[in-house]
Amino acid sequence: MVEDARNFLRNNSTLIYFLIAQFIAIGAGAASVLAYMVKLETRVETMEVRGAAYTVARMDEMKLNIAKIQQSIEKNEDQIRLIREVMTRELRLNSGSPKQ
Predict the structure, then answer these.
(1) For the chain, how big is the Rg over CA atoms in Å?
(2) How far apart are CA 56 and CA 50, in angstroms?
(3) Mean pLDDT, 10 residues at a time, the chain of 100 residues
(4) Contact, 12 vs 19, CB < 8 A?
(5) 18-56: string of b/e by CB count within 10 Å (b at 16+)?
(6) Do the Cβ atoms of 9 and 16 come closer than 8 Å?
(7) Looking at the 3D structure of the chain, how many domains does it have?
(8) Which domain holds residue 34?
(9) pTM for the structure as a whole
């Protein structure tokens, strides 16, 4: 029986090496996929933990910028209103005078 096993191994050594190499390749592929999944999960968790504070800070910064722009718009509207009042006042004064 031992002789039969040795003869089988000698006659089919290429097949046995191929099967062993396949098992090693499959194991390496599975380990690579597992490592990638762990790395991805770590990144997602980091983004969830750190990203929330960053997002809140960014939103607060945007709110401040919007408030500044709104103040600028209100200031510009007041200036335009003043210019319009001065111009319409001058038009009323000029239209009331006799033409020469």
Answers:
(1) 41
(2) 10
(3) 89 92 97 96 84 80 95 96 89 65
(4) no
(5) eeeeeeeeeeeeeeeeeeeeeeeeeeeeeeeeeeeeeee
(6) yes
(7) 1
(8) 2-96
(9) 0.43
